[in-house]
């Protein structure tokens, strides 16, 4: 969705189309989250009239898919991979291993017992 995309991106990491798209999804989600929560509250509130709740449901379903939290995916900041990403470091398993062995991650060392 080009109309959501920022004019200039300063992500400070590896950049490909998947990273740009994920960044866009995060920004759009952040902007529309209060509105989504308000609509969800209206839908679940049984004290409101049925017509109001139905209108809120319709508005929620007509919102863009980028406003949903399920669209956001954790990606590796080094290579852009979407699978096998360690949350604490935001790196894929392979990149984590290479950086840990090179000593680039403070406080991480190879286990030995």
From TrEMBL:
Keywords carried by this UniProt record: Ribonucleoprotein, Ribosomal protein
PROSITE patterns in the cross-refs: RIBOSOMAL_S14
Top-level taxon of the source organism: Eukaryota
Molecular function as annotated in GO: structural constituent of ribosome
A single Gene Ontology CC term: mitochondrial small ribosomal subunit
Protein's GO biological process: translation
InterPro entries, per the entry: Ribosomal_uS14, Ribosomal_uS14_CS
Family per record: Belongs to the universal ribosomal protein uS14 family.
Record-given protein name: Ribosomal protein S14
